[in-house]
Write a structure and sequence with these properties.
The complex is a heterodimer. Chain A starts with 9 loop residues before the first helix and ends with a helix. By secondary structure, chain A is of the alpha+beta class. Chain A folds into four domains: 10-71, no CATH class; 131-344, no CATH class; 361-530 and 761-890, no CATH class; 541-754, no CATH class. Chain B is built from four helices and two strands, in the order H-H-H-E-E-H. In chain B, helix 1 packs across helix 2 and helix 2 (26-36) packs across helix 3 (43-56). The longest helix of chain B is centred in the C-terminal third of the chain and has 19 residues, at 82-100. Chain B is elongated, with a radius of gyration of 17 Å. Classes of the chains: A alpha+beta, B mainly alpha. The interface between A and B is medium-sized, with 19 and 21 residues.
Chain lengths: 892, 110
């Protein structure tokens, strides 16, 4: 005997009664009650109630639904009738329908594409099942006086530190990337990026294995994990597991055994690799000092927090742990360790970039907003057209009201029309958008991937219904709101609806013109960036990455690579089309030139960029010298100790007459400033020109510095100018010479102008995306305008006829029609100006060098808008003016 | 004449109806199936299968036997019809015939 009888949920029982066929109801209900009763004995009441509700829902099958009159009179049947009427009305006004559907479809294409882009950007790294517990460590060192170092790459030491001192962490893994020459058969190596991972890396992150051991695939020092596409690249159809690949560690190639193959890493992953080896190898690759160092950073460190622990607890105690280990070297608060959620990495620009590139969140939001705006324009389009149509429909409404239709029913009818249109548009738009994804990628340089998920269907349906309701609600309200007698008597619609229509049209114009001017201004800025004189000559310059024959110390590597470069130079110099051969430690267009820091004589911390070159560098790039002299060819003194500064460096160090002086540090080796070069933009135009020191021998400078930051490889790049007419020829010459000298090493080279263009790839992509949205919004506006013009022409047919009879010219009739919209157009253009100014000023803040926005931009966008508007109007105005007035006036 | 065919779950339910004789209604069938076949089946699936079987004429039903835990609702008891029996025999025969043609030892497939 139970003490407290529990009852099944009332709503579920009621729902069952509502839908179930009465013939089946009794025993079905009885069965469910019986099972519920039984469930109550074994499970908690709440659980039993949940089960009961679930059964009721599951019992909702076609065979169990009652098919009687009650259902037929219900809303369901009513809406199918509504849909039928809607379909008829839409069919009758097919031009309007086509314009409406096309407008919304285009809006939806834009919305879906932008939505996909935003979705992809905002779901970065969310596919890991433990994502909520994974954090990346960062390190902020702040020693005062601007001597701050903020990194999301950390000391190698952090892995063992976190493991020993933080019981809050279930696992700690590191991820690093390095370049290694890789070969399968030793006859030809290619330099590949290889990830160095902690052995238990795959316990934290979900990268599914296709083949091989899922258990500790990197447990051995010489284990290798390969991606599917790289397995195909190196082994074709062969099963890669168990095969070996050779990687060049120090001087010789060492075989690595493939233990597992993972599926290709999706694009929305911050961690990207195709080859991964175990970081147990650090022991061999690195100096033991580096492994224990606190101030040298390399890999990213990820922690998996225990299920019951909190990251805040760990964060709180970091200071204590740090003080326990290096309390003698640093003060409290100088060496800060923090953690950032994994899913936060991709769109957070406050934490510095680690190994993976990040996106600008503002761009993502802007694109999302643009997608919504364009969809809004499309909705407005429908609304304005529907209001226009209401003149025609008014009589129908009046008739229905007289016959006893209530307001709710009428609203439902008009809404079902707009929902029908929106759903059809949604269907076409989504299919088209997905089909257009490759085109969109090619056009904008975006990297979209579409994979179908069932939720998308639900989202599409929801958005479709929402769009339908939003765009249909206003016309439905005004149509059903008006008094019957007035509708039946009056021929025109109420003045109030005219007012709303005008406001909406103005909004639409404003958004469209805003988009036009923004994309024009962006285009101007990007053209400026790409054509600005950078202060050096980079046309048709090829940069070849040189390799070192050793993997030892940095200086030895640089020496070895420089020797290789000289070998290649002598061969290349034999070709008459090749000129201006030179080497430099960094090439233009690559970020992260060596940044050195030292304390100056007053104790202030100073930083400068360092470029190691040969004596021909300034000549090769035609960089002008403003004071002193450049490097003399073959001068031993210059090779050893002469340095050049750029103007920014002279100003930064506060040197009055720099020639013959030294850098203001204590410990530098023997060196002397022999000249000053004019500032040239060696970095992207996002930044001001930074202080730069150019030398042929970096040794003396390295002696005096306290800090180095290098994100680009410092190995020399050989650069030459190709004066021939065909660039393909340059490639052939280079490949031949390379083959002759280094047959076992893969050649890697690029054109400098391309690298420089790439610095603005993000901006160029944004501009292209905005341009696509602009074109789409213009199209939508054109359709709206077209529909409105047709309406106006139709409703004023008689007026036009009479005017013609009295003697109006074609131009006067055109003017009459143009006047209908011109005020809204002008107002729209005017309103868009301040908004555009504000938005674009924000965007331009990102650049150190930028264009003036200028009046011309607004004039041209206004011109475009007005031109397009008149083009649309003129066709119908022309038709109306050609119409025989007899025809329009005779019919009554 | 088109021959009615029968699905796997339908066959199982039909067999159970036959086995339970006079005591076959949805809940007992569910219990029997869970016990004998060790399958987790939803009650709603049983209902819809029974409805289908009745429509095809393999079972007939009658309403009786209300109890307290059923909130006074009667049960729908099902009985196997001759047509239902025939379809079970048929499917058994087909299976047996095929089964006997299996080679005794499956060396050839190794």
């Amino acid at each position: 005997m139970r003490l407290q009888p529990t009852n099944p949920p009332r709503w579920a029982v009621r729902f069952l009664h509502w839908y179930c066929d009465p013939d089946l109801l009794e025993d079905l209900e009885g069965d469910l009650f019986e099972l519920f009763d039984r469930k109550c004995q074994t499970a908690s009441p709440a659980q039993a109630r949940r089960h009961f509700a679930w059964w009721v829902l599951r019992s909702l099958r076609w065979s169990a639904i009652k098919k009687n009159n009650v259902l037929k009179n219900n809303t369901l049947m009513m809406s199918s009738l509504n849909l039928k009427v809607a379909a008829r009305v839409l069919w009758r006004d097919w031009l309007n329908t086509v314009l409406n559907i096309a407008g919304i479809t285009i809006g939806i294409i834009c919305f879906v594409l932008m939505g996909l882009y935003v979705w992809q950007e905002s779901t970065y790294d969310t596919f890991h099942s433990k994502k909520d517990r994974i954090y990346r460590a960062w390190l902020l060192e702040d020693y005062g006086e601007g001597q701050t170092f903020f990194n999301s790459v950390t000391p190698i030491r952090f892995e063992s530190l976190f493991e020993s001192d933080f019981p809050e962490f279930e696992r700690v893994v590191q991820y690093d990337q390095r370049q290694f020459p890789v070969t399968r058969t030793q006859d030809r190596s290619i330099s590949e990026r290889v990830a160095l991972l902690s052995p238990d890396f795959f316990e934290v992150f979900d990268f599914p294995f296709i083949a091989g051991s899922g258990k500790a695939p990197l447990a051995g020092k010489y284990d290798l994990v390969i991606s599917k596409r790289y397995a195909e690249k190196y082994f074709g159809d062969l099963n890669p597991v168990g095969q070996t690949l050779q990687l060049q560690l120090d001087e010789q190639f060492v075989p690595f055994t493939i233990t597992a193959m993972i599926s290709d890493i999706p694009k929305n992953s911050s961690i990207q690799f195709d080859l991964a080896i175990s970081n147990l190898l650090y022991e061999d690759l690195m100096n033991p000092r580096v492994l224990q160092a606190w101030m040298m950073v390399g890999p990213e460190t990820y922690v998996l927090v225990n299920e019951n622990s909190n990251i805040a607890d760990a964060e709180e105690k970091t200071q204590d742990v740090v003080m326990r280990y290096i309390g003698e070297e640093v003060n409290r608060g100088e060496y800060n360790i923090g953690f950032q959620p994994l899913t936060d990495i991709h769109l957070n620009t406050e934490v510095p970039v680690g190994i993976a590139p990040v996106s600008n969140p503002v761009y993502v939001y802007v694109l999302g907003v643009i997608g919504l705006l364009v969809l809004l324009i499309a909705c407005i389009n429908y609304t304005t057209l529907a209001i226009g149509q209401s003149i025609k429909r008014a009589k129908e409404v009046g008739m229905r009201k007289i016959l006893g239709a209530n307001r709710k029913g009428l609203m439902a009818q008009y809404l079902s029309e707009s929902v029908l249109i929106a759903l059809v548009a949604m269907l076409i738009g989504t299919v088209l958008a997905i089909w257009l994804v490759p085109v969109f990628n090619r056009l904008t340089g975006a990297d979209l991937e579409y994979t179908f998920q069932w939720q998308h269907v639900m989202v599409c349906l929801a958005v479709g219904v929402l769009v339908g309701v939003i765009s249909g609600i206003y016309p439905a309200v005004i149509l059903t709101n008006t008094r019957i007698m007035r509708i039946l008597q009056a021929s025109g619609s109420s003045p109030e609806s005219h007012w709303v229509r005008k406001v909406m049209l103005t909004c639409q114009f404003t958004i469209t013109v805003l988009l036009i001017s923004s994309s024009l201004i962006m285009r101007k800025q990007i053209a400026f960036l790409q054509s600005k004189d950078l202060g050096y000559d980079y046309e048709a310059v090829v940069a070849v990455n040189m390799h070192s024959d050793t993997q030892g110390r940095m200086m030895e590597q640089m020496e070895s690579a420089r020797a290789n470069a000289e070998l290649l130079m002598t061969l290349l110099a034999k070709h008459p089309q090749v000129a201006d051969l030179t080497t430099a430690s960094h090439s233009f267009g690559s970020a992260g030139w060596a940044l050195l820091g030292f304390p100056d004589k007053q104790g202030a911390f100073r930083q400068f960029r360092l470029l190691t070159v040969d004596d021909n560098y300034l000549n090769a790039f035609q960089i002008p010298i403003v004071a002193g002299r450049g490097f003399e060819a073959k001068s031993g003194l210059d090779k050893r100790q002469s340095i050049l500064l750029n103007e920014a460096a002279v100003a930064y160090f506060g040197l009055e007459d720099p020639i013959g002086k030294k850098l203001p540090g204590e410990n530098f080796g023997e060196h002397q400033i022999i000249g000053v070069v004019k500032d040239f933009h060696f970095q992207s135009l996002h930044e001001e020109v930074e202080p730069l020191v150019i030398t042929q021998n970096p040794m003396p400078l390295f002696e005096g510095i306290s800090d180095v930051n290098v994100f680009d490889s410092m190995l020399p790049k050989l650069m030459f100018k190709y004066s021939g007419s065909q660039l393909v020829q340059a490639q052939r010459i280079l490949e031949e010479s390379w083959e002759q000298l280094f047959p076992n090493v893969g050649l890697s080279y690029h054109f400098i102008d391309e690298a420089i263009q790439r610095q603005y790839a993000n901006e160029a992509r944004l501009n292209k995306l905005v341009t696509v949205a602009t074109v789409i919004s213009i199209l939508i506006a054109v359709m709206g305008l077209l529909g409105l013009t047709v309406l106006v022409v139709n409703s004023r047919e008689k007026e036009i006829g009479i005017r013609k009879v009295i003697g109006a010219t074609r131009y006067e009739i055109f003017g009459l029609l143009a006047k209908t919209f011109s005020w809204q157009l002008v107002l729209g253009v005017t309103l868009s100006v301040p908004i555009t100014l504000w938005l674009m000023r924000q965007w331009l803040q990102d650049f150190a060098y930028r264009v003036d926005i200028g009046v011309d931009m607004f004039i041209s966008s206004a011109f475009i808008a007005i031109f397009v508007a008149f083009l649309v109007i003129s066709y119908h105005a022309w038709r109306a003016s050609r119409l025989n007035p007899v025809k329009s006036l005779r019919v009554e | 004449m088109k021959k009615e065919t029968i699905g796997e779950l339908e066959e199982l339910v039909l067999l159970t109806v036959g086995v339970l004789m006079k005591d076959a209604y949805a809940v007992t069938i569910l219990d029997e199936l869970t016990e004998q076949a060790g399958r987790k089946i939803d009650i709603t699936a049983i209902h819809s299968v029974l409805r289908r079987l009745e429509k095809k004429g393999f079972v007939v039903s009658e309403m009786r036997g209300a109890t307290a835990e059923r909130g006074g609702r009667r049960k729908r008891y099902f009985t196997l019809t001759p047509a239902g029996r025939a379809v079970l025999d048929d499917s058994m025969a087909v299976r047996t015939a095929l089964y006997h043609r299996l080679p005794k030892l499956t060396f050839s497939t190794i």
